[in-house]
Amino acid sequence: MSDIDELKKEYRLLERNVLLLIMVPLPVFSYAYLYTTGKSKDLLIPNLPEFLNVLFMVLAVSGLLLQSMRFRKRLKPTRDKSLTFSERFISYVRTTMERYWILLAVGLICAAGLFFFQNPGFTIAYAVCLIVVSLGKPTPDRIVSALRLKKEEKDKVYEIVRREDL
């Protein structure tokens, strides 16, 4: 198997996993949102201490900041020209997966916070999370930009993401 074929496999796995991590918190948050905005509230929800409301909000905002800082910090070494293209690309894949795991946690924290505390701040935090998810989804242009690729390496990225089976 060639190097490009291996990177294609890694990219397809990344693409699938990112979509799954995006999808998981959507129905959970949707349920929490519909429950808190609906007229009939027939579930017995325990009254949790108020400090948990604040803690969940701090965790959600911290997660949003953390994923951004970690993503940038972990991509910095990939700009080193001594690394091969494959090493840089794999580093991008792993860093992106880490980012989306954090965003999954943020989405679930926002859903739990909204459900238990009916705090609209969690809706705003989740909206910001969705914006980050949308803007961070790996596309050829984002990969090229994040890794600061030029010419033939840029072409390799487009070759990796191209689907031949369509």
Mind explaining what this structure looks like?
The protein is mainly α. It has one domain. It has helices at 3-23, 25-37, 50-75, 85-117, 121-136, 140-147, 151-161. The longest helix is centred in the middle third of the chain and has 33 residues, at 85-117. The chain is elongated, with a radius of gyration of 19 Å. It starts with a helix and ends in a 5-residue tail after the last helix.
Question: Briefly, what is this?
Answer:
By secondary structure, this protein is an all-alpha fold. It has seven helices and no strands.
Number of helices: 7
- Order of SSEs, N→C? HHHHHHH
Question: Could you give the count of β-strands?
Answer: 0
Low-confidence stretches: none
Query: Quick one: biggest sheet?
Result: none
Name the features.
single chain; 166 residues; mainly alpha; 7 helices; 77% helix
Question: What does the secondary structure layout of this molecule look like, with pairings?
Answer:
Blueprint: H1 3-23, H2 25-37, H3 50-75, H4 85-117, H5 121-136, H6 140-147, H7 151-161
Helix pairs in contact: 1-4, 1-7, 2-4, 3-4, 3-5, 4-5
